[in-house]
Amino acid sequence: MGESGTAEPDGARRVATEARDRVRFEEEALALADQVYRVARRFVATREEAEDLVQDTYARAFRSWQSYTPGTNLRAWLLRILTNLNTDRGRKIQRRPDETPLEESDYYLANRMVASAGEQVLDQERVVERLSQDSIVTALSAVPHDFRDVVVLVDIGDFSYADAAQILDIPLGTVMSRLHRGRRLLKANLAEEAVS
Amino acid sequence: MSDCDKCEELLQGYLDRELSDAEVVVAESHLNGCDYCRRRYRFEASLRVYVRTTAAERMPPGLAAKLAGLRTTGASPLGS
């Protein structure tokens, strides 16, 4: 009421600036969609799930665009939303009683596989040349998700360790150890693919 | 091989370009002197390239338009 005269043009200008920022945010986010999808695709089992996940991510990103700090890594910010959504989804699935993979069993499997095939792979330089695209996808999807997520972010998403730590909300040291074990598992799986 | 346990850690950081300058010097001087690690390095490097290129799948056609349809600013003509 008291704010007549000068207040209204200021307010109008602020609204216009915000609208412009918002348009720019949406355009920058959309330009990253292909890169976001590449990571999402290897987080989940099917193309449909990946598409859903990316759409949910963008819907949430567009709603909460103001919590993004301009000038920071937008791709990492989007991936943080995506991993949160994916974790929520994963927890729902894991609550079903007959498919509750305990974390311990993941680690057990990891250790066993590395023990059986990990070391010998290291000497097979040629193993990479003999692999098909299918085998790498199969081998990667067989890596337990805790380890796989880190490998996907660093190797496919090209994120730094620090970004991966932030995206997954885990310490840097955990990123490094999971990356290490994830890659060994991947190699062990690839060795099996190459042999069969 | 067990001599190179520490190198394995270094190798990973080296390949991921996560080492400090001082660590890079250590890693490179070790790689120069160790056949085993040099072979490992080549293998690991080619594996990374391979994973990056083969496991990266492009966005399916149509998804970009669906995402543009989620925009709130109405700047896109594409609705969903």
Provide keyphrases for this structure:
heterodimer; A: 196 residues; mainly alpha; Rna Polymerase Sigma Factor, Chain: A; Arc Repressor Mutant, subunit A; 2 domains; 9 helices; elongated; B: 80 residues; 4 helices; disordered C terminus
- Tell me the domain tally of chain A: 2
Give the number of helices of chain B. Answer: 4
Superfamily at the CATH H level of the largest domain in chain A?
Answer: RNA polymerase sigma factor, region 2, helix turn helix motif
Provide the structure class of chain B. mainly alpha
Q: Can you give the helix content of chain B as a percent range?
A: 55-70%
Can you tell me about this structure?
- The complex is a heterodimer of chains A (196) and B (80).
- Chain A has 196 residues and is mainly alpha-helical.
- Chain A folds into two domains: 2-93, Orthogonal Bundle (Rna Polymerase Sigma Factor, Chain: A); 108-195, Arc Repressor Mutant, subunit A, CATH 1.10.10.10.
- In chain A, 75% of the residues lie in helices and 0% in strands.
- Chain A is built from nine helices and no strands.
- Chain A has helices spanning 7-31, 33-43, 47-63, 74-94, 103-122, 133-141, 145-156, 161-168, 172-195.
- In chain A, helix 2 (33-43) packs across helix 3 (47-63) and helix 7 crosses helix 9 (172-195).
- Chain A starts with 6 loop residues before the first helix and ends with a helix.
- Chain B has four helices and no strands.
- Chain B is mostly helical and 80 residues long.
- Chain B has helices spanning 5-15, 21-33, 35-54, 63-68.
- The chains are: A mainly alpha (196), B mainly alpha (80).
- Chain A binds chain B through residues 19, 22-23, 26-27, 30, 33-34, 37-38, 41-42, 47, 51, 54-55, 58-59, 62-63, 122-125, 127-128, 131, 133, 136-137, 140, 151, 154-156, 158, 160-161, 176, 179-180, 183, 186-187, and chain B through 8-9, 12-13, 16, 18, 39-40, 42-43, 46-48, 50-52, 54-60, 63-64, 66-68, 70-73, 75.
